[in-house]
Amino acid sequence: MVGSGSGCASGPEDGFLTAGFVVAVGFSMLFFVLLANLMAVQYARGVVRVALDEGARHGARYGAAGPACENRIREVLDGLLGGQMSSGVSFRCEGDSSRTSAGAQVAFPAWVPGVPEFRFRMAATAAVERK
After folding, report:
1. What is each CA distance from 11 to 8, 16, 20, 28, in whole angstroms?
2. What residue ranges in the chain does DSSP mark as E strands?
3. pTM (predicted TM-score)
4. Would you put residue 15 in left (φ > 0), alpha (ψ -120 to 50) or beta?
5. CA-CA distance, 59 to 127, in Å (whole number)?
6. Who has the most CB within 10 Å: 71, 93, 107, 116?
7. Helices and strands, number each (H, E), in the chain
8. Mean pLDDT of 73-84
9. Chain segment 14-38, per-residue pLDDT in tens
10. Alpha-carbon gap, residue 16 to 23, rounded angstroms
11. What's the gap between Cα 65 and its chain centre?
């Protein structure tokens, strides 16, 4: 019969292209999520660096390494990071008469199951200002 049907020949491969397309799209989305997760972790890493630097400078300026430094770190993290990611940051400040140090241990969860969480340590030091 000429002119019947959609004009396409049907055979045993019907629907095979659709399954391949779904798999390809799935892997593309997985790659996109992993890339977005990596970008978010890099942003958060920068925020932690800035927070530690700010805290160490603030503690050195006011001569109260512990409370002044830790409060400033908390302010910066709350202002720039917040949410679940900031809960993965633990920090501490120490100081003496010549310097103030701030350190952090960080663990950011991965967004894809099976990918290990992102863990790292950072530190910052500032010289105490003399009057």
Report:
1. 10, 11, 17, 29
2. 89-95, 99-108, 118-127
3. 0.78
4. left
5. 10
6. 93
7. 3, 3
8. 90
9. 656 788 888 999 999 999 999 999 9
10. 11
11. 27
